[in-house]
């Protein structure tokens, strides 16, 4: 790819780190001000960037590279978690987070999305 979207519109928020929250994983709101790893079908609030001292930095907006599974395609998409640390196409309309898929690396199983 001849262009880079890294850092485009990135916005992160700090949450308390709940069960299973780890860098690189899609996370969900699990309690007031707390995120946890997504289970299969959960709609992610964002992608966990790091966990330290019981707190998680979560990217909630902007360009992010995520691991994916399923028939994700370039362009507008709705995503949900697969329960294994990846995102997948949402199974039904209104049951996912709307994103734009800007680039894909099928051999690495990653996609660049705009949250």
Number of helices: 0
Order of helices and strands: EEEEEEEEEE
Cα radius of gyration in angstroms = 13 Å
Strand order of the largest sheet: 1-3-2-4-5
- Count of structural domains: 2
Distance, first to last CA:
20 Å
Instruction: Give the overall shape, derived from the CA principal axes.
Output: globular
Task: Report the helical percentage.
Answer: under 10%
What structural class do you assign from the helix and strand content?
A: mainly beta
Uncertain stretches of 5 or more adjacent residues: none
The average pLDDT score comes to: 96
Secondary structure: number of strands? 10
Strand content: over 45%
Largest sheet: 5 strands, mixed, barrel
Question: How would you describe the overall organization of this protein?
Answer:
Helices cover 0% and strands 52% of the residues. The chain is globular and about 35 Å long. It folds into 2 domains: 11-60, no CATH class; 63-114, no CATH class. It is mainly β and 115 residues long. A 5-stranded mixed β-barrel has the order 1-3-2-4-5. The model has no long low-confidence stretch (mean pLDDT 96).
Reconstruct the topology from this structure.
Blueprint: E1 11-17, E2 26-31, E3 34-37, E4 46-52, E5 55-61, E6 63-67, E7 75-81, E8 87-89, E9 97-105, E10 110-114
Parallel strand pairs: 1-3
Antiparallel strand pairs: 1-5, 2-3, 2-4, 4-5, 6-10, 7-8, 7-9, 9-10
């Amino acid at each position: 790819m001849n262009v880079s979207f890294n850092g485009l519109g990135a916005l992160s928020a700090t949450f308390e780190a709940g069960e299973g929250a780890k860098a690189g994983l899609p996370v969900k709101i699990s309690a007031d001000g707390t995120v946890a790893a997504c289970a299969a079908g959960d709609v992610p609030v964002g992608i966990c960037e790091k966990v330290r001292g019981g707190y998680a930095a979560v990217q909630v907006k902007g360009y992010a590279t995520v691991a994916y599974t399923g028939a994700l395609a370039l362009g507008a998409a709705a995503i949900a978690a697969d329960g294994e640390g990846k995102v997948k196409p949402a199974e039904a309309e209104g049951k996912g987070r709307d994103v734009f898929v800007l680039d894909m690396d099928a051999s690495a199983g990653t996609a660049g999305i705009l949250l």
